[in-house]
What we know:
Elements: H1 2-13, E1 18-21, H2 23-30, E2 38-41, H3 45-51, E3 55-59, E4 64-69, E5 72-78, E6 80-83, E7 93-96, H4 100-105, E8 115-116, E9 122-123, H5 128-134, E10 136-137, H6 143-149, H7 152-164, E11 167-168, H8 170-179, H9 188-199, H10 204-213, H11 239-249, H12 255-259, H13 264-278, H14 284-289, H15 292-298, H16 308-313, H17 327-334, H18 340-354, H19 362-376
Parallel strand pairs: 2-5, 10-11
Antiparallel strand pairs: 1-2, 1-8, 3-4, 4-5, 6-7, 8-9
Bound molecules: adenosine-5'-triphosphate (ATP) and magnesium ion (MG).
Amino acid sequence: MIRAKYIIKRLKEAGFEAYMVGGAVRDHLRGAMPHDIDVATSAAPEQVKALFERSIDTGIEHGTVMILIEGQGTEVTTFRTESGYTDNRRPDKVEFVNSLHEDLMRRDFTINSMAMTEQMDIIDPFGGREDLKAGLIRAVGVPEERFAEDALRMLRAIRFSGQLNFRIDPKTKQAITRHAERIQSVAIERIKAELDKVMVSTAPVISMSYLIETRLNQFLPSGGLFEADWSGYAQSDDPLSGWFYLLKQNGETFAVLREYRFSNQDKKDLQRALEASDLPEWDAWVYYSFTERQLTIAQAASHKRQSVREQQAALPIRSKSELAANGRDLMEWTGEKAGPWLKQWTLLIEKAVVERRLANDKERIKDWFIDEYHRHT
Ligand code: ATP
Ligand code: MG
């Protein structure tokens, strides 16, 4: 807030208008901490850049520059409208306009279409404050038209319902139901980003029931999957927990991972989480062999939850490199050259140490190893 206020002050001193806008104003009025603050201004991008020492052109063609203050970025966007979303990816053309009002008009929902001065005065042309009090998500203007401009807004309405624990205004909901099929024209990355936000929202159950009620899910890849019973899902700050829950409830349909273009890391973590969740019991070796994230995700569908971090912190070692003996020691003790035996025996030692059958001490490992080695060779 301090940085945004400083930026606004600078812009105003230079003769421009500037306000905090969008989600930050909404969150401020809800008494929540805004995670980032967007500034809207009458200054053109080049004029904004000229006033500050450090900036990054994050989206200059859309009128956005990021101003860096003490290493922290604040997005400053020139008042604009957007029109013609032929591919539903980005507006065909962005037009700069000279009033705040026009800028607020292009925004999606009344609660997202308010501005705030640096003195914290609220500018609220569409009744956002009232809707915020009533817990309502309502499109600015005619919902049909707004969803025709950008079909992603339908999914955003559903995402905000779970994020804020709000209802969707009946007219807005009706328009989503009527135009649900339009979601198919939206780029999958944008869809996935909204669904990820649903997974980490305070009430995914609300979003999911709107998704199904409006039939929007039927026009999403593997959309039937979302018709799961979400009542057993616990709030999480990792979207993968939600996807894991989905796969678990539906019997692991891996097409989803491809369709929604998961990163390789996420694919791996999801698959490992599914493996872990199929194990009857989690012993020390399981805590050792899976990552904290994989095991935490795997708890999304189970009722008993415990701190994976604590369990892992209690392990005698966290990785092979912490073993008090290494491959070179083993070769020295046996007089053998490197080979597959080395890997097998290292694993046996690792397991014995993790399971506390053997202390992680070089002499103890040596005694144990020589004894076992001679017994088996
Ligand atoms: P979050 O807390 O998730 O960041 P937010 O309201 O800041 O919520 P953003 O996606 O960061 O959401 O967008 C910032 C603002 O830009 C919104 O508050 C809204 O005013 C506007 N906006 C974003 N996406 C759209 C869209 N597709 N159509 C119209 N306005 C949009
Ligand atoms: Mg935001």
